[in-house]
Amino acid sequence: MSDAPRPAGVSPWGRRLVIAVPYLWLLVFFLAPFFIVLKISFSDTVIALPPYEPVLDIAKGWQGVTEWWAGLDAENYGILFEDELYVASYLSSLRIATISTLLTLLIAYPMAYGMARAPKGWRPMLLMAVILPFWTSLLIRVYAWIGILSPEGLLNAFLLGTGIISEPLYIMNTETAVFIGIVYSYLPFMVLPLYASLEKLDDTLLEAAADLGSPPWKAFWQITVPLSLPGVIAGCFLVFIPAVGEFVIPDLLGGSETLMIGKTLYNEFFMNRDWPVSSAIAVLLLLVLVLPIAIYNNVQVREVEAKK
Amino acid sequence: MTPYASPSLPRLDDPMALKPAQKALGPIRRSFAPWLDPSAVPLIRFENVVKRFGDFTAVDNVSIDIHQREFFALLGPSGCGKTTLMRMLAGFEEPTSGRITLAGQDLVGVPPYRRPVNMMFQSYALFPHMSVEQNIAFGLKQDKLPKAEIEARVKEMLRLVKLETFAARKPHQLSGGQRQRVALARSLAKRPKVLLLDEPLGALDKKLREETQFELMDLQMELGLTFLIVTHDQEEAMTVADRIAVMNHGKLVQVATPGEIYEQPSCRYVAGFIGDINLFEAEVTASSGGAVTLKSEEVGAAFSAAGEAAPGASVALAVRPEKVRISIDPPPADATNVLKGEVWDIAYLGDWTVFLVKAENSEKIVRVSRANVMRSEAQPIAWDDKVHVWFAPDAGVLLTS
Amino acid sequence: MKKGLSSVNLAALTFGFAFLYLPIVLLVIYSFNDSQLVTVWGGFSTRWYVALLHNEQLLEAAWVTVRLGLISATLATVLGTLAAVTLTRFVRFPGRTLFSGMVYAPLVMPEVITGLSLLLLFVAIGLDRGFLTLTLAHVTFSMCFVAVVVQSRLITFDRSLEEAALDLGCPPFKTFFVITLPIILPAIVSGWMLAFTLSIDDLVISQFTTGPSATTLPMRIYSSVRLGVKPEINAVCTIMIAIVTIGVIAASIATKRAESERVKAERTAAAGR
Lengths: 308, 401, 273
Prior knowledge:
Chain A is built from 14 helices and 2 strands; from the N terminus they run αββααααααααααααα. By secondary structure, chain A is an all-alpha fold. Chain A is globular and about 80 Å long. Chain C has 11 helices and no strands. Chain C is globular.
């Protein structure tokens, strides 16, 4: 019917108000802070309040501005590239996030597929069953694994008790535990978009394939998988991007050997009290993630436009 | 529109057919033609209205006058601009250029909630969280009418559409036909100067649609309102409208009464869009005193037709299928425009039969339709029969575009 | 789908859901374990729940968390709804790309970045960290989730209902409150619930943006568990899980009942003509 979705008769000021309120909020509390982080990443640490310098003193007028500008340097970025810890953390985070995303995909796909093929009456319940853990705190769910994976935990008790192994497994405080933690926590984020994609799949396409002589497994790879790709992509972004900067899971389940940039940043900030270096870490992390975030954003917007 | 559709003539034994005729013979309908009166001031004027969406021109320089108490139809295929035109009258779109006036008042910049125009939506757009009563009262509440008056008006509307016992129900508790009646009542509650109907009968089954068409016509006459209906269904437009505006690709093609549109189409498009037509492409060989002789290469024959045209001009002779006679025996000696051919296909529709006749020595298929006035025939025409078809000189219209 | 479940599908589902729920179930079970050790079952007991009631710190933190959740969820819902309306109704305005970027980005942004940047903002403008900054931070990240939920409902919303209201004389803002809002209310409520849950579960952003006067429950839980499994923590977690479960199930049942009532009503109407 009508092309332009402009609501008729809305006063221009009313329109501006509705747009302005959330816009300003996000500008102030989401966008502006990034610039502050950027600025502080060029500052130096001091034992003072605030624990960085230079601090812009507007009262000093233009002289204040020039002083402030002169005090900025890229020293912190130098530290990031020189000190092995940081580079290793970035690379390790990317590696762990990528592997975890793939593992999550591997587990989530059969689940989502099973849910999409389940009898119609079951599906709301299955959906609810997947969403329920998502509403439960990440912290709680990760904590639950401590009790299972630790040397005195339930897993070892079970395996030792049944005689499958004779020595306890040291999974806790290793990368393996982090993998398990990430896969476990982010599973619903992968299942839901996959399910949404697979559920929309038209059954008659598979029937047509069968009618034309394609065996089920072939139809799966040639029809089902390609058509579920939007869901796969959405799910992967929803897992990968936050996983790169994940903190709680490597902190509780990984040991000191497990390097993830989120943990490094946190420790740099709260333990070393080095705000400028933490900011530099954050800026670099953001740069690393800017491309995936932009792609994800693009995909979201396009999906919304398509639905209109 | 079925390929073999033809305008239904009222059957003599059908009580439904008599009902509108009784009303139609009344004084208003028989002499109702304000568009012919040069001193009449139209209620609605579209003046050179253009609407563009980016590169796409939805409405291309359309000018129409609609008079008070008319039941006016905008007819055309989807995408022809009829809906856009109506929405500009309602206020949901603004024209890119041109003017729309209602009762002399220019509507530019007037938002929809301040226009004395109401619309009945294609999807009914009933407010799901309100009851039937509340839906109908909604417009009245916006005008801040006193409570007693609102109640009285709502009751009146419910009576009008025969839904008195359904007042407290919610839309999801109603059937399709009932929802449609609520939508109608709601749009009439404010007694608008003009009621716009956006393809209102599309969702109904055939029987209900026909009933509702007649009900709408009765309602319109009873209330003395002006109705503007937008539809792609030419049968619907022909049934309800006083005048029809045929549109195509944003342009206005012809504005006329149903009878004029059917019997005097202005061009090939209108001739083909409304009902079925035989178009014989021909060249004028002679013309004098309102009669022309044509030579058609298509069928290798000469035609004589009534009309004016310059010799040498290329025209199409448009003949409606029911104006063409068919028989196996040769026609009477004084018959004109006779063609011989073979029956190519037959469609038996119960009340009518349609014959597709392939003209001798050509590829042309002539369409002939005939009412089955007898219950059985002695010598019925069958496939592959050799037949004669003929029509009178004034049976067709000369079309130059 | 007509084919139904093959044994492979069934196995995948079973394994998947078992994997999802086993840890939670074990946690719940061991909150009733009389013994302190995870591997030793000391008998059924509710002593840890009793201990909870006397734990001032945890109770205080719970109160802060609930208050924070209620306030931030409500504010986030208002802002998120405005953002959703902007994205779906106002197609062209300067800076629209930036705006939609700012709405979608927080959904995937690592919390350490959001937390750090918000803290640095508060320091730069000289705002003391405490309940206020905590609330501002929570509103900021949860409003985007609300926006996405409400937006997806607004997109499928039948615009002709709004046009009908306009046509009948109702100006646009009134139309929004009288027609649109009541109909999309379920989406707004789910948005609110989502914002509430995100707030009461949040750890990292809270760590960055709060002050000494406002410690949330997740923060208390976190500082406890860094040192290992604590049965009292199991009890707290079980309570939180129970609340969430009851909430989700109740919402589910309510939706299902409304849906079946509507289907029944439509069927009777169609039959009765």
